[in-house]
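Duplicate of #3305? Posting structure anyway:
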């Protein structure tokens, strides 16, 4: 009941928007270009076997591989930038500049390089998810309490002990904040890659339905993509609460 009270306003707003959309779609009577929410759900049910067993696994593979690479490289680079100011000065401007390049313009180039294999989509996903993980983790590593650091030094702690006992616990909340952004963006990255060049995946299927002027069919995989993003976000929130129980006690 407590959670319901917290999210009641959001739920009511979403319900109102869906009802307005449903009404507008029924009045317009243009299901091929303006499908109703109920029409999308019906189409999603009709396509459930194709979407769930043929295309969803391909999209999930892209998302999981891309996120894994971003976590390893992003956290690793954040640690290196925290340890070495030279590495920070060399890579931080590149990180910022990478976000000014439109990914949708680079995706066709990756298709040329890697073909229609999974790796062209994985690279797009990594480029989108790498930045929030790296920057948030780096900020977290630098957020350690200076008084605690000085206390550990006076007690004879070495750099490794300070890193493990102060820097890592300080960085974990920031890391999870970046990861929550990254998991939602990973769905967008995978969909963009599949939309521009793929042989399977929810983004590919949505584009295929567009060529058939099937409005509900275009939105059906998008609804599934949205559900995937929400589920991944909730998993990260659950992991954060499990691993950072000490935050709730502060």
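Output from current build:
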């Amino acid at each position: 009941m407590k959670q319901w009270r917290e999210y009641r306003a959001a739920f009511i707003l979403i319900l109102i928007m869906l009802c307005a959309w449903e009404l507008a779609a029924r009045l317009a009577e243009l299901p091929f270009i303006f499908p109703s929410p109920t029409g999308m759900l019906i189409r999603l049910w009709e396509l459930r076997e194709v979407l769930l067993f043929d295309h969803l696994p391909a999209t999930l593979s892209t998302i999981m591989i891309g996120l894994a690479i971003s976590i390893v490289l992003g956290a690793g680079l954040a640690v290196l930038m925290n340890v070495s100011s030279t590495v920070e000065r060399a890579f931080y401007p590149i990180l910022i500049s990478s976000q000014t390049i439109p990914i949708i313009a680079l995706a066709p180039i990756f298709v040329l390089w890697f073909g229609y294999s999974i790796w062209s989509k994985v690279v797009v996903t990594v480029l989108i998810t790498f930045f929030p993980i790296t920057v948030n983790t780096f900020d977290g590593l630098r957020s350690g309490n200076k008084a605690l650091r000085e206390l550990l030094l006076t007690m004879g702690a070495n750099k490794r002990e300070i890193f493990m006992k102060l820097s890592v616990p300080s960085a974990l909340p920031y890391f999870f904040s970046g990861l929550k952004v990254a998991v939602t963006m990973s769905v967008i990255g995978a969909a963009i890659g599949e939309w521009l060049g793929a042989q399977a995946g929810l983004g590919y299927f949505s584009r295929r339905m567009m060529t058939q002027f099937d409005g509900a069919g275009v939105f059906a995989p998008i609804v599934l993509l949205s559900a995937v993003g929400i589920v991944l976000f909730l998993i990260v929130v659950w992991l954060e609460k499990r691993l950072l129980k000490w935050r709730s006690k502060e």
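Confirmed duplicate; merging threads. The CA atoms of residues 148 and 166 lie 8 Å apart. The chain has one domain: 41-248.
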